[in-house]
């Protein structure tokens, strides 16, 4: 001990004396306290001391403050932070291109492998800068000395294809070509674009290597956007849908006052945006305002700095300030409690754009492509004049960009009214001219405002029709690595010339180079070959040409050292045969993506012909798939099947062919009960054939009348829906729909004599009505009839028992919606009729001559012939109505109205849609919503606007519920909670009444703990009832709820009490759990510590004060929810965000974990003996143990486990939680008062003094030993 004593004193002697500077208070300017501190530097005051642009600090040296109080700089309320002088006009972290070029800035991104750099906002490329600009950039990059190599946003799309740019805007998809002194030295075996600043060249490299990226941006923050008035679109943000502006007030306001009057549309510009960028944006925006010099505006709630090199991550440096900014970009930090007022607020708001929709169509008659864009404002655009779209074609081999006529062919912007919200419909149509008269693919691509790539389907245009056919030829050619590296382009040109010569082709194009291995290059060529129209059948002519080409390929290509791999049509699977159990099946010419049936009569067991899909693509060519199904040789065809099959095979007499649409179909459709799926397929093929015959010789076919056609469609619609669905796998119902439309158009065109029209109050129109199908033909020249409304009389199942009401071109929505029992309606308004464009002359916007208009309206009672095979979220929920105007473009400048009665008022999102016949790579049509929009929902009807003509319906989206399951169940859950809370409070009242009546009972230690526990439980229950029943704290507006300004202090007060009471109830549950553990497990002994009740009270009611005080001190506003809430959500005052997790969830989870552990320990102790073996007990004791287990489950608050599980979105847990947790007080009353024999006996004795009861057992519901 002596040695240890001497050692300690020796160490104390050697250690230096502790240097401490005593606490001081300075009174210069703002009074601040300098706390007692050990020796050190840069010690800060409390609160912080500021003087202009710096934080004042002091050093503690040799027990002395430096500087002294007399030398100390005065402290002020605000901190000024000034911009450092910038060497360019670019934002911070961006660099200027050169002294002479202020149009662009560039930025060096952190090193990584090539992964589409500069995709989000990069708008230019280095090859389009001048020599001086490039020289300046190379010099700057050498000075910063980050790397020798920099990734550029370009790469190859396929093997050995040209390098193309991958930056949004006008350079998207264009070949990399240099327009300055930087040469492009392409290494063909490397795919990603690289800048070498030492070699001063652009080259290609392996994409997995990590280099920094070099991106170029427009130095113009004003992005073309649909911003509110006086706001401007802002570039350089991760999502370019941010609008920025300055809100100016006639009087000076505090930050909070500004926020209160503009919270719906203004977020402070400096919040959550990189500080340097937001300040630069403000400086640019402020130039549009005539502010006096050094005008200050409110800017942000906190001062944010960038965190390291993590893009998009910011840290709040000073969170106890309100930040203001002047027109020079300097910022000033004022304390929240300061009374500073300013006359303006820098704002930003995010514009929610509709998702752009693209439609790309080829007009075969006029050899023109039409690109329709709905909501073009949702596209990312390089400039105001940019279309936002880039179109491509492979007409000349490798994919290349083609030009769009930048002057819109059609452009509209209208507003519609839906759900009390203004909503703008935008539509623009561009013409895209073909770049060759040869067959080719065309498509378009663009980027949305958040830089998501969208694209149209690839459309094949074949202007030369039956004269030229395209074949896909695969060749394997020997190339050395050096030839690939040096002479590839020249060699491939020679290959194309040789193949042209070998096959006498009209044109040969190199489409793709597929693989290269072992010095063998697999290439894909397209040969455009003239067709000799020897046979009547197109398929036979192509098949002959194919066989000739294949023979030449097998005999001639090897002479050029080319290895023949494959030849196939790029558009069709050619006629061929297959064997099915000894039966030879012939397969006709079939387009890629379609399904064919054989010529032979070969039906499966399901009544559908065996079938075969044509696989492949335009680029790679076609190939037949496997035959699906086996012929049922025992099948005996019906009369209908025999008739239709004979007509399909061309075995009918001429007279039967002439009468096919009248007597023929009238005969076989009279008994639809005998129809099978094959009959529907043969019917569709027969209708196609009869139209082909009528096209070549009009007098050879009796087209019948519209009444006859209506009868035919009606009979088709009553066919077995299962058979219609099976037949649609062969596209049969689509073909029938199209054929019926063509027949009606021919009948309308032939009917020129208006004297034959139906007279309806001197109004001319034609009408054909069947139970399930109705046709109306309108002639607006006669009394302006342009539409139809159907009013049902009863819940009828057909159109015979309805009223037909003609509608006029000047009909209004309100007039139609006033029609009682309205089923369906549509009409062509006058503005649509006046703006129709004649399809015979598309070179000018020639308006329609009204005497030529025939409006055809067809109404389907159900969707039987609209069979969608592929899964889709859109389901038909109305009748179907078709609208067409022969001779005019279906693309409309103004919308047509459609009103549908909903079949079902299900809680799903309603949409308006149309039947899309585009069947590329799919066997059937599908419901789509492009160009059709829901205007409003009135009672049980949906009002739609559509901007094109076809077949329409009202749809429901089964993936989008209007009210989700949680919202649907909110009311019953609230009711359960309120009832449970009432019962629980009733039970707690019973416990406290027991304590009040029986003095001996309340003096027991266990009763004291119980009273504290129930008091803590009662507090949150009372407050929850207040929040559920009271509407004074939250104000409602447009279905949303906000905490009113007058009630914010009350909200904070109630939120703090609720916060405290919840934590206090859990603390008392923890205390109770420990007492149960002491009693039943007995590992801590039986004796209670001295003054244990005082200690428990301090713990139970004292510890919860700590987290509540922390929230009140650091962020009392946290108790007020900043997000607007619907009344179906939990509109209460309570901690949110970080404080919710730290001060509520974490403590509750810790206590629950401890309580669960103690609960398991108690259960084990009461069910096992001291030796660890299971007790052998009587029935009474088992019952007592079960009751004890249930009691402990509620007593220890373990019902909150269900609350944790409810976060899984499984409503079962939510119901369990509401049913059990709110009943805790009632359960305690039942166990402690009703079920406890001692307590119960007290009440019984009070009511009936002569009654006495003795329990044979000690109560198992006592909290502690008494």
TrEMBL record:
PROSITE patterns: G_PROTEIN_RECEP_F2_4 (PS50261), GAIN_B (PS50221). Residues 1-19 form the signal peptide. Residues 973-1236 form the G-protein coupled receptors family 2 profile domain. Coiled coil: none annotated. One of its GO terms (cellular component) is membrane. Residues 806-962 form the GAIN-B domain. InterPro entries: ADGR_G7, GAIN_B, GAIN_dom_sf, GPCR_2-like_7TM, GPCR_2_secretin-like, GPS. The keyword Phosphoprotein does not apply. GO terms for biological process: cell surface receptor signaling pathway. It is a multi-pass membrane protein. The chain crosses the membrane at residues 975-997, 1009-1027, 1047-1071, 1092-1114, 1138-1166, 1186-1207, 1213-1234. Keywords: Disulfide bond, Membrane, Signal, Transmembrane, Transmembrane helix. CDD domains: 7tmB2_Adhesion. It comes from the Eukaryota. One of its GO terms (molecular function) is G protein-coupled receptor activity. It is found in: Membrane. PANTHER family: ADHESION G PROTEIN-COUPLED RECEPTOR G7 (PTHR47767). This is Uncharacterized protein.
